[in-house]
Amino acid sequence: MPAPFVQSVQVGLPRFHGVAGAADPLDRPWATGFFKEPVAGPVGVTMTNLAGDGQADLANHGGPDKAVLAYCADHFDAWAAELGRPGLPPGAFGENLTVAGLTETGVCVGDVWRCGTAAFEVSQPRQPCWKLARRWRIKDLPARVVKSGRCGWYLRVLGEGTLEAGDAYELAARPNPDWTVRRAHEVMYFAKADAAESLALAAVPGLSISWREELRGRAG
């Protein structure tokens, strides 16, 4: 497999979509930063965002633990075939970084990755929400993402800098090699009755605060 690299970088600020008074709820106004467009050239990386990026729902998105969303470019062909939508563009899953050469089985919670002059730490798998369904008008798309395990991963920023499409995505440290993003995703969604696994994941260094709280809460 070739060395992983950032195939595309996307940003987008929150804005309203839809038509006031539309009969179909899917067509009514909603605010979101989900619609992200590719950026050419260097993009600034701050502790909470990429330059030019933002979230509408700050209670559930964004913040230091979910500053940047990465998604595997290698998943796009499978999604295009499954959904009957050829040519899905970079950013189709709301991601900031479309990364080639890596999947959820090759990335671990707590990993430190360097890209351009910035440094990132993997904080949690991405949990797909209703906005993904509404973006593509496919009601069960979040459920399909969960079932497939093709979830993507969130990054916190350890060191500000710049990055751009084509930059290498380089592993600098892997403190938790047993805890791939795929394994963490499966514990969260498919092992809810397994208190031991929930507590083990909650104890993984680098995991986001929100996941720690949820896992400990359900483990009792």
Walk me through what this model shows:
- The chain contains six helices and twelve strands.
- The model has no long low-confidence stretch (mean pLDDT 94).
- The strands form three sheets. An eight-stranded mixed beta sheet has the order 4-1-7-6-10-9-8-12.
- It is α+β, with helices and mostly antiparallel strands and 220 residues long.
- It is globular.
- It has a single domain, classed as M1 Pyruvate Kinase, Domain 3 (Beta Barrel).
* Number of DSSP helical runs: 6
Question: Major beta sheet, specifics?
Answer: 8 strands, mixed
Number of domains: 1
Q: Pairing-aware structural class of the strands and helices?
A: alpha+beta
Number of strands: 12
Order of helices and strands: EEEEEEHEEEHHEEEHHH
Q: N-to-C terminal Cα separation, in Å?
A: 42 Å
**Proportion in β-strands:** 15-25%
Strand order of the largest sheet: 4-1-7-6-10-9-8-12
Low-confidence stretches: none
Apparent shape: globular
CATH topology: the name is M1 Pyruvate Kinase, Domain 3
**Helicity level, as a percent range?**
10-25%
User: Gyration radius, to the nearest Å?
Assistant: 17 Å
List the helices and strands and how they pair.
Elements: E1 5-11, E2 15-17, E3 30-32, E4 37-38, E5 43-45, E6 68-72, H1 76-83, E7 97-100, E8 112-115, E9 118-125, H2 130-136, H3 141-148, E10 153-159, E11 161-163, E12 169-173, H4 181-190, H5 195-202, H6 209-219
Parallel strand pairs: 6-7
Antiparallel strand pairs: 1-4, 1-7, 2-3, 5-11, 6-10, 8-9, 8-12, 9-10
Helix pairs in contact: 5-6
Q: Care to give the gist of this entry?
A:
The protein is 24% helix and 25% strand. A hairpin with a 2-residue loop joins strand 8 and strand 9.
